[in-house]
């Protein structure tokens, strides 16, 4: 039985114009016009029995026109013509409500098989009809596909579900100004994921704001900082080292070779030669014949950076026999590699880059990469060493100039594993790119790291779906995020945005018929979002449910803190942490007696 039970007398008005998905309805009753609201729902009669067309009210206008234009010439006792009112409602069609589809009743489809006929009746969706329709929307999919985001603003009793498959298959973006609820929304999605039996995802946590998230299925890891070098922290402690031998050749060249140096081509060529030689020596020493025959310079094979430096020093000081017997002359590379060698040594001893160049000895073992991959790519079911599930990786101690390169290194590692896994064995994984504008920028600087990051994420955005890699781009400045990556994201969760450039980016991502939605961006409440895309059956406003664990991203209440009459923390502790490059965690208070 249809949930829409209207009589002709209930009609809001009649269709006067149809243009693809845009319908213009003329409303005769001024009182009914006053009750209408922009972004509310309307239902129109379809040319097919058993179907109704659902639309969103985009614009309401009331204009004075000459009576003759309406064909309703009236006059007063003096024969003067009287102006009439033309009340119009612009509606964007978003789908079809079918009374019966196979064995299912009341099914909403995001397709338009028909358009309304001229003079077809239009009705407002409100009261019981709205409640019944939202119930249909809330029951659109099986339990396995549901990603519960919150409740619809149209009806706060109706739960807003996204299609979990399409949300990650087609990639997504979550955008919003500072304080709009962006991190809150991300935390909500992560909690829903973590509750699944075999969840798999990685969060690139740039500022450590997701540390408070605690739930079964959520694991916290962090990139090693200077303090971990002395503590000898390992994967078992939740600390990740990313040894230099994981870097691709081009990334190494960008780190060590000064492109402005006139000897840069020779330096790059010799780096390639010496690295291949060092990797070959490692494989031969370990008797890995099956790899030895096919490895390349980009193969993830350990090698000794000390051996590379020693070989470069030999070439830099090399003397060869001269033209005359008993004489010597400088070799082809004599004195041309000193700057390269110094850069290598400086990087090697820089404690900020300890996670690259001062990693524990076990990272040089051939099987160590298996452990790293298990830590990053394993699903919830693989609980060995407390790994698997949703991994929140803290990058807060990575130097800002190295951040794009290091995040792209992790992303490429995940993508490569998925690419080289047989299709039937692939376990899908989602990458959450928090503060994406910092490492997937629209305008790249001279830093080679940004170029590598953009290339890596562009490839994942274009090809990730084939290999089971989903992308969720999170940013407060969508106008500063790479456009190619954004264009591949078919799901949009937009919180409040006040910057005009950012609003324009969101407008371009919206379908033409829903462009009016962007007008709501500056006035959305905290925790409220516009949700549009393949995963959302109903493009609408959603009030995101508060996550169980709040991310550490709330805005500091300045005035309240200044109003507190209490002693503030010792700043000397902050100075000490700065010097040691390690945040001093506050001591855990002792339990009260009797507890």
Automatic annotation (TrEMBL):
Native source organism of the sequence: Denitromonas halophila
Keywords, comma-separated and alphabetical: ATP-binding, Nucleotide-binding
TM region positions: none
CDD domains: TrwB_TraG_TraD_VirD4
Keyword match Endoplasmic reticulum: no
GO molecular function: ATP binding
Residue stretches making up the Helicase HerA central domain: 149-412
Gene3D superfamilies per record: P-loop containing nucleotide triphosphate hydrolases
Protein name as annotated: ATP-binding protein
